[in-house]
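Sorry, explain these tokens?

___
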Amino acid sequence: MTQQTPGRIRRFIYGLITILLTTFLCLILLEGFFRVACFQPRGRVAVPYEFQLSDLAGVPYELTPNHQYEWKYGPRRLFDRGFSIPVRINEMGFRDDPVILPKPEGTIRILAVGDSFTWGLGVAEEDCWVEQLEWMLQKQTTRKVDVINTGVGSWNTEVEAAFLQGRGMALDPDAVILGFLINDFRATDTGYAIDDRGYLVTRYKDAEGRGEARKLHLQSLLYEEEPRGNILIRIAESSHLVRWISSRQVKTEPGRLMMSNDGRSKTRTWNALARIYMLTQEVGIPLYVLIFPNVEDPILAADKADLDELASLCQAAKVPSLRMETALTGIPPQALWVHPRDRHPNARAHHLYAQYIVSSLFTNIDDLFCEPIKESLKEETGK
């Protein structure tokens, strides 16, 4: 009996080694399969110091002023080298030309407020719907048209209301265009920090409310150009098999895409919309609402119901609103994405958005924003 024990141990060890080697070989084969047959692209490279914490009440973070950098994207397909988009941020933290203050006489100034769909994430500045709109409107008039892009990724309606109240209305706009994305029903409760490498991170506690952890903002879409961690973490981050598994988790756990502590609150969203409406009414300028669903087909039934409710509220308040999916009707969603792992609208989608806005809201901009009657004319007419 004692003579058989070493043999059993050897067989057990050989069997364990065989299982481990077989598993390892299978993983290598699966990795090769996903790299060739089911290529899993990497998303956008995280940009250090793209954001800074804001000192404006109700605004957790903003774009870093006077910052120039590139959005870099991984390959979209096998043998693709990826691409990059130059980004420039002006002195006020907007992705736009420098803002002239006070506003020059005769200028039509429109403030575009929103999140990444307004910011133009993943597209060149000139391709963003805000810049396209400015270019299209400028062709309608001899007056200077200035459409200012104040969008910031993942801002929601509460943050946008705080921005308008604290800074935006001081720019003396003649109109405000609010871009509303379906995830704007989030409430703003998540904390933020800038980590030791300059990345914006979200702060959250564990399930028992103990301790504090941090994760890269929107980490499912971003990766670090120089990954941190040991060799196993780096191998996992470079694995197409792991990337495929993580993308499946993102689809089934949409909350991972946004902030850790944020929850949905229609009441808070409607209150923020009311604040924005009152801010524009106080100075007598129009408010326009662009209602963006995610770029997907079909739109989820629950999302459509929420956006229908928003459109009804705008109609009741006599606030012009547009359902922006109409601009993309009949086009496959994958033809409108920036990148397979970043489903923000691409340049084609932004151009279609701008055309739809002009044809629906601004067919003749001079009729909407005419010069006030000058005092001299009033005197001449005796009025």
Summary: The chain has eleven helices and 16 strands.
